Amino acid sequence: MKDRLFDGLSLLLIIVAIYVLNHQLTTISDVQLGDEAFYMYQGISNFRLGLQTDWGPAYSLWYKFLSLFEPDTIRLYYLNMALLSSLPTIALYVALRFTGFRWYWALYCTLVFHFSRMNFPEGVKVSILLFLLTLLLFIIGARYLRDKLHIAFALLTLTYFLFAYFRPEFVVPFGVCLVLLIGATFWFRQSVYPIVGIVAVVLVLFFGVGSPLSEKGEKAFKQDFSYNYAMRHPEDKRLSTYSNWVDSEVMSQLIFGERVKGFGDALLKHPKLVIGDHLLPNVYNLSVQLLTVLGSYFQPLSHLPGATTIQSLFDRKITWVLLLIIFVGLVSIRQTARAVSHAVMANPWPYIVATTAIIAPIVSSVYSMGIKIRYLPAFYFFIPVVIGAMLMNLQFRPWLSNFLAARKPVIRIVGSALSIFFLLGIGAWMIWEWKHQTPATTKDKELLQYTKQLTASIADKNRIRIFDNPDALSTHLGSIAIGFDQYKRNTDFYKFVEQNDINLIIFRTEVTQYYENDSSMQRFIEQPPQAFIRTPGFDPNTYSFMRRDLLK
């Protein structure tokens, strides 16, 4: 009864926390164009640009499902953000309770994730959705398959392959789990039917739908490698005029001195460059991000009175030495290790899920730029599960155990008082989060509204052929985009516009800056063809161009 009461209070506080985070969502978070917009565009346009199985088609289907309830793309973006900033919070609390942790540990760790930068206002939510689905799979396994670990692990293995159609790097944990599943099946003499079923489903999807691994990974490597190299070598002036997002092919050729197909080809031909200027920096960046995630568990404590003084103590090495001495003096390391191993063997499911779930984000971070914290939500399940197991199974020295056993009534009273203070502290923490929400610069949302107003009189938006990336304005217009990467700078922009039948161009500041040395485009801006109408742009000192026949 006591646990049910505190579970009820915890869920009530989580609902309050969800309201705190989302009640002014549209003012403290901007609409992100980039990848998230492309996922949305593919979903709402029924994969207009082709299925592209390496571009998260399953996440696009999620957007398609949500669009049945909200057709407006800006509101659809915020609907997705609200759901995926809320549902994982609830699922995480339930998952931690199914793991066997006490309510206060589950509540605290859940709210740390909820108020983390990774959860909000981070706008790219595909990894968060996968985190939610992983937690739901864990809960189903813990609830219904506790005595059928082999079946649960087979289900996890298959799920990781399905996740590859959200994020391709999940092929790696799928492969790891499949090898372990095969080994465990023969070692423990289990049924091979789950393996046969998994292989059958994989083959059907692989040949029927398509491989989740293809050209996107190669292009992403070149973009991310070019970014890393340019950041580490500002002295290389050859790269100063290029953008790694648009000119990754050119930049990678300049850096390597030849064209490389992708990661494997580059590593084989230029191992020193790839390892020294990409992999090792990414490993370092990943370590920094993981320390940031770990530090977020201590961040709420910094609001306590006198926290600044306490924090200064932990900046000294002598403090950590003393804490280590005290820990060794109070805790039996051998018995604690034995208790932890027994707990893990008695219920390995949480540790299997928590460990395998972090394989994909680690691979993605090392392969990519290593600075995208949005890849790492799975660590908010891994960290509390691992640390919680250690804390729950601490075994004290005999003299301390006897001392605590003799004072159980006092400890119960102290525990009740601490529970009250803990709940009051949680309330104060949420009030602090509420008061410190600050409005964001919603420039992209305002750009979308400007673009929608500019094209409001055009009934058939499919007639619009806009000079823009396909993951930006076209998502919210429903138009066709001619990407920046299709125009080779310092060529004939007039001819490019004519050949591609472009009828809408919106020059915002970042676009004009990118093309500021392109004489052909600058001449187009100053002397547009008679067929185009020039209007004031979204940004100061910029212009937008619409072909006259588009308005008919």
UniProtKB/TrEMBL annotation:
Question: What keywords would UniProt list here?
Answer: Membrane, Transmembrane, Transmembrane helix
Q: Does the keyword Transmembrane apply?
A: yes
- TM stretches of this protein: 5-21, 76-96, 126-142, 149-166, 172-188, 195-213, 318-337, 349-367, 379-398, 410-432
**Protein name, please?**
Glycosyltransferase RgtA/B/C/D-like domain-containing protein
Naturally occurring in which organism (per UniProt): Spirosoma flavum
